[in-house]
Amino acid sequence: MWPDPGERVTVGAARPRGSQARGGTGVSWRVGAGRRRVWRVLVALMVGLSALAGPAWSEPAGAPERVVLAYTGPLRGELEPCGCTADSDLGGILRLASAVDALRESEADTPVFLVGTGGLFGTHLAAHDITNAFVRSGLASVGYDALGMQWSDLMYGETFAAGDGLPWIASNWRIEEPWRPATSRVTERDGIRFGVVAWLDPIDSPYRSKAPSTWRVADDPGMLAARIEELRGTVDLLVLIVDRPLDSLDGLPLEGVDVVLAPVKGDDFPASAGHGEVILLQAGERGLSLGQVVLERAGAGRWRLVKSAPKPLDDAIADAPRLLGWYADYENALRADF
User: Is 189 left (phi over 0), alpha (psi -120 to 50) or beta?
Assistant: First the structure.
């Protein structure tokens, strides 16, 4: 209905949900009889512009439509292929590095991000202190964007874990000394801002029997929720790494999280699944495979899973040439200790 002469009119489009706040856009004036034609033209113009504008939410200009997320589970100190049987000689850091390098090369036009659940070290091997030190340095060379943490990663203390600059995360870590992992990490690659947070469950903490002032992590998920809230709206893709199975997610904040990565018992990488708008990934132990998923923009800032194909690290994968010197140093260290 057209306004009557003398009626006060305000022109301005309502701000859509999720859009950035802007300054005043309304224009108010009195409509005289001679201005009704101008009013008709103005309204028609605004309707046309609104149609051209499209939906209220839009992707950043030029941002990639898909990403590749690679992931690993608890390594448990398995630096070399497990050699479990002749038919399942899988794993090893040399093959892992080679598979990651090949993935990054083959997906040169797509952002590739690499994360892990933690649980890197083991005590079941001879000379495990030497092996674990080389596990740490070898994985630092692979090039992770973020690593969750498990309590076994602190078996030698915080100083050992901090060596070689691994990108640890524990979003509920609450003390500063003697060392503090990051509470979140953000990586930007090819126009995609990739954020990671992680939950280190206090239930299994070896510090629980000591004075509360020495407890490393907070019991409630409030600190995790705060990190998620900080990153929401500032990253394109947000991953939560947990140190517990997926059936232990109750009580953890998931609003704003795109992907949850959890470890599983055993060597397998179970099929990826969905939990509402959250994509659920699970990673097996001992480093026998490299998890790989392709995620595609689904609109309104969300992502959907379009492909999931864990890659077995078998003998068809050559050792990474760039880590052969590292492996030679490892063998020399073992000989010197023998």
Answer: beta
* Bridge partners of residue 302, in order along the sequence: 299
Please measure the distance between the N-terminal and C-terminal CA atoms of the chain and give it in whole angstroms.
Answer: 92
The pLDDT score that the predictor gives to residue 46 is 34
Largest Cα separation within the chain, whole Å, is 101
Condensed to tens digits (0 to 9), the pLDDT of residues 171-222 reads 999 988 888 999 999 999 999 999 999 999 998 899 888 888 888 999 999 9
Helix (H) or strand (E) holding 181: none
CB 294 within 8 A of CB 307: yes
Q: Which two tokens stand for residue 126?
A: 């001879």
Other CB atoms within 10 A of residue 303 CB:
22
Residue pLDDT, tens place only, 243-262: 998 988 889 999 999 999 99
Q: Which of 200, 195, 194 is nearest to 181 (CA)?
A: 200
* Sign of the Cα pseudo-torsion (128, 130, 136, 141, in order): negative
Query: 324-337 vs 128-142: helix axis angle to the nearest 10?
Result: 170
Gap between the Cα atoms of 259 and 81, Å rounded: 29
Do residues 214 and 173 touch, judged by C-beta distance below 8 A?
A: no
* Mean local confidence (pLDDT), 305-330: 96
Regarding pTM above 0.90, the answer is no
User: Residue 254 and residue 232: Cα distance in Å, rounded?
Assistant: 11
Write out the H or E segment, with its range, that includes residue 229: helix 222-231
Six token digits for residue 49: 């512009």
Q: Which residues contact 328 (CB under 8 A, 6 or more apart)?
A: none
| DSSP reduced 3-state for 291 | strand
In whole angstroms, what is the distance from residue 331 CA to residue 328 CA? Answer: 5
